[in-house]
Write a structure and sequence with these properties.
- With 45 residues, the protein is an all-alpha fold.
- The chain is built from one helix and no strands.
- The protein starts with a helix and ends with a helix.
- The mean pLDDT is 83.
Amino acid sequence: MSIDLFTTLAIAVSLLVYLGLGLLFYALAWAATRGDAMTTQGDTP
């Protein structure tokens, strides 16, 4: 049972890390695109 529990914990942790990194990169990309859009909107008027 301990091996199954360890494997389950390892998979859960790896999935959480993968999702966390994915959300972090998505947030950084969204912030970058939003910042570029804001700068372009500020320059056009």
